[in-house]
Write a structure and sequence with these properties.
It is a single chain. This protein starts with 15 loop residues before the first helix and ends with a helix. The radius of gyration is 35 Å and the shape is rod-shaped. By secondary structure, the protein is an all-alpha fold. The protein has five helices and no strands. Helix 4 (89-98) crosses helix 5.
């Protein structure tokens, strides 16, 4: 009769079948979490890929800057574009270099 007495929560004690079912249910929940854990090698590969991509982008940017620096531009064109369009001299120079020194094309792109 002592086994049939309610526990401290006022519930009757659970039999071993109920305990086994509850244990299986709990195990099935934790199985999903284990399946979702990240594989460290995949994470490392992804991080390496991101780093390589960022490095390639920086190299491409450096090459582009070198290419633009090699373009010959007329200082008078820079002054005219900067003063007439009320732009910073650096912006006018960059735009002129991007258009290979063609002042008309640079002005058209700035006005669009």
């Amino acid at each position: 009769m002592a086994d049939d007495a309610p526990d401290a929560g006022g519930r009757p004690p659970a039999d071993s079948k109920d305990l086994q079912q509850q244990s299986k249910a709990l195990d099935s929940l934790t199985d999903h979490v284990e399946d979702r854990q990240l594989d460290s090698t995949r994470v490392q590969q992804a991080m390496a890929s991101i780093a390589a991509s960022a490095h390639a982008d920086r190299n491409a940017q450096r090459l582009r800057e070198k290419e633009l620096a090699a373009v010959k531009i007329n200082a008078a064109d820079v002054d005219i574009i900067a003063s007439e369009l009320e732009l910073d001299r650096k912006v006018a120079e960059r735009t002129l270099r991007e258009h290979k020194g063609d002042a008309v094309a640079a002005i058209r792109s700035l006005l669009q």
